[in-house]
Protein backbone atom coordinates (compact mmCIF):
# COMPACT_ATOMS: atom_id res chain seq x y z
CA UNK A 1 0.00 0.00 0.00
CA UNK A 2 1.45 3.35 -1.00
CA UNK A 3 1.21 6.45 1.20
CA UNK A 4 0.67 9.67 -0.67
CA UNK A 5 2.48 12.89 0.27
CA UNK A 6 -0.82 14.33 1.50
CA UNK A 7 -1.45 11.37 3.84
CA UNK A 8 2.11 11.52 5.21
CA UNK A 9 1.84 15.26 5.88
CA UNK A 10 -1.52 14.80 7.53
CA UNK A 11 -0.11 12.06 9.80
CA UNK A 12 2.83 14.25 10.89
CA UNK A 13 0.50 17.19 11.51
CA UNK A 14 -1.74 15.02 13.70
CA UNK A 15 1.28 13.79 15.69
CA UNK A 16 2.53 17.37 16.19
CA UNK A 17 -0.90 18.54 17.28
CA UNK A 18 -1.11 15.87 19.99
CA UNK A 19 2.19 16.96 21.58
CA UNK A 20 2.00 20.71 20.93
CA UNK A 21 2.00 22.74 24.13
CA UNK A 22 2.29 19.79 26.46
CA UNK A 23 5.62 21.05 27.82
CA UNK A 24 4.53 24.66 28.40
CA UNK A 25 3.84 25.44 32.05
CA UNK A 26 2.01 28.73 31.22
CA UNK A 27 3.84 30.61 33.95
CA UNK A 28 3.00 34.08 32.73
CA UNK A 29 4.40 37.28 34.14
CA UNK A 30 1.72 39.18 36.03
CA UNK A 31 0.16 41.71 33.61
CA UNK A 32 1.04 44.72 35.80
CA UNK A 33 4.64 43.52 36.08
CA UNK A 34 4.82 43.01 32.31
CA UNK A 35 3.56 46.57 31.75
CA UNK A 36 6.14 47.93 34.22
CA UNK A 37 8.91 45.98 32.47
CA UNK A 38 7.77 47.33 29.10
CA UNK A 39 7.92 50.90 30.43
CA UNK A 40 11.50 50.40 31.61
CA UNK A 41 12.55 48.81 28.33
CA UNK A 42 10.87 51.57 26.32
CA UNK A 43 12.77 54.13 28.39
CA UNK A 44 16.13 52.82 27.15
CA UNK A 45 14.99 51.76 23.69
CA UNK A 46 16.16 55.02 22.19
CA UNK A 47 19.69 55.77 20.93
CA UNK A 48 19.87 59.15 22.68
CA UNK A 49 18.76 57.66 25.99
CA UNK A 50 21.33 54.91 25.73
CA UNK A 51 23.97 57.56 25.10
CA UNK A 52 22.76 59.57 28.11
CA UNK A 53 22.81 56.51 30.35
CA UNK A 54 26.35 55.68 29.28
CA UNK A 55 27.55 59.29 29.68
CA UNK A 56 26.18 59.51 33.21
CA UNK A 57 27.42 56.06 34.13
CA UNK A 58 30.97 56.93 33.01
CA UNK A 59 31.04 60.49 34.38
CA UNK A 60 33.97 61.06 36.79
CA UNK A 61 31.70 61.60 39.82
CA UNK A 62 29.01 59.20 38.55
CA UNK A 63 26.67 62.10 37.93
CA UNK A 64 26.09 64.75 35.28
CA UNK A 65 24.33 68.08 35.02
CA UNK A 66 21.87 68.75 32.23
CA UNK A 67 24.20 71.45 30.89
CA UNK A 68 27.03 68.92 30.56
CA UNK A 69 24.79 66.50 28.68
CA UNK A 70 23.51 69.06 26.19
CA UNK A 71 27.07 69.95 25.24
CA UNK A 72 28.16 66.31 24.83
CA UNK A 73 25.08 65.29 22.85
CA UNK A 74 24.81 68.43 20.77
CA UNK A 75 21.13 68.72 21.66
CA UNK A 76 19.09 71.53 23.15
CA UNK A 77 18.25 71.53 26.85
CA UNK A 78 14.49 70.84 26.42
CA UNK A 79 15.24 67.75 24.33
CA UNK A 80 17.75 66.38 26.84
CA UNK A 81 15.39 67.20 29.73
CA UNK A 82 12.61 65.26 28.01
CA UNK A 83 14.81 62.16 27.73
CA UNK A 84 16.01 62.54 31.33
CA UNK A 85 12.41 62.78 32.59
CA UNK A 86 11.42 59.57 30.82
CA UNK A 87 14.43 57.75 32.25
CA UNK A 88 13.86 59.16 35.74
CA UNK A 89 10.16 58.22 35.67
CA UNK A 90 11.15 54.68 34.66
CA UNK A 91 13.47 54.43 37.68
CA UNK A 92 16.70 54.36 35.67
CA UNK A 93 18.05 57.69 36.88
CA UNK A 94 18.03 59.60 40.14
CA UNK A 95 17.64 63.37 40.05
CA UNK A 96 18.99 65.89 42.53
CA UNK A 97 18.16 69.57 42.21
CA UNK A 98 21.02 71.95 43.01
CA UNK A 99 20.04 75.57 42.62
CA UNK A 100 18.67 76.07 39.12
CA UNK A 101 20.28 72.90 37.70
CA UNK A 102 19.45 69.23 38.03
CA UNK A 103 22.09 66.56 38.42
CA UNK A 104 21.45 62.99 37.39
CA UNK A 105 23.01 59.71 38.44
CA UNK A 106 22.29 56.12 37.45
CA UNK A 107 19.85 54.35 39.74
CA UNK A 108 21.64 51.05 40.34
CA UNK A 109 18.44 49.27 41.37
CA UNK A 110 16.81 50.32 38.10
CA UNK A 111 19.83 49.11 36.16
CA UNK A 112 19.74 45.79 38.02
CA UNK A 113 16.07 45.46 37.13
CA UNK A 114 16.91 45.76 33.41
CA UNK A 115 19.49 43.01 33.80
CA UNK A 116 16.88 40.84 35.53
CA UNK A 117 14.45 41.40 32.66
CA UNK A 118 17.06 40.48 30.06
CA UNK A 119 18.47 37.51 32.00
CA UNK A 120 15.55 35.98 33.91
CA UNK A 121 16.27 33.28 36.45
CA UNK A 122 15.50 29.77 35.26
CA UNK A 123 13.49 27.59 37.60
Describe the 3D structure:
With 123 residues, the protein is of the alpha+beta class. Helix content is 59%, strand content 12%. It has 6 helices and 3 strands; from the N terminus they run H-H-H-E-H-H-E-E-H. The chain has a 3-stranded antiparallel β-sheet with strand order 1-3-2. Strand 2 and strand 3 form a beta hairpin. The radius of gyration is 24 Å and the shape is elongated. The N and C termini lie far apart (49 Å). The mean pLDDT is 83.
**Helix and strand element order:** HHHEHHEEH
Question: In angstroms, what is the radius of gyration?
Answer: 24 Å
Mean pLDDT equals 83
How many E strands? Answer: 3
Beta-strand content estimate: 5-15%
Give the secondary structure arrangement, pairings included.
Elements (H helix, E strand, L loop, with lengths): L4 H15 L11 H14 L2 H12 L4 E3 H8 L3 H13 L3 E6 L2 E6 L1 H11 L5
Antiparallel strand pairs: 1-3, 2-3
Main features:
three-stranded antiparallel β-sheet, alpha+beta, 123 residues, 59% helix
Brief digest:
This protein is of the alpha+beta class and 123 residues long.
Amino acid sequence: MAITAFEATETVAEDDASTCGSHLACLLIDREEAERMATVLKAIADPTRLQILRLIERAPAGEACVCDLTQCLGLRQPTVSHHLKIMTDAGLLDRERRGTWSWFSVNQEGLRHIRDILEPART
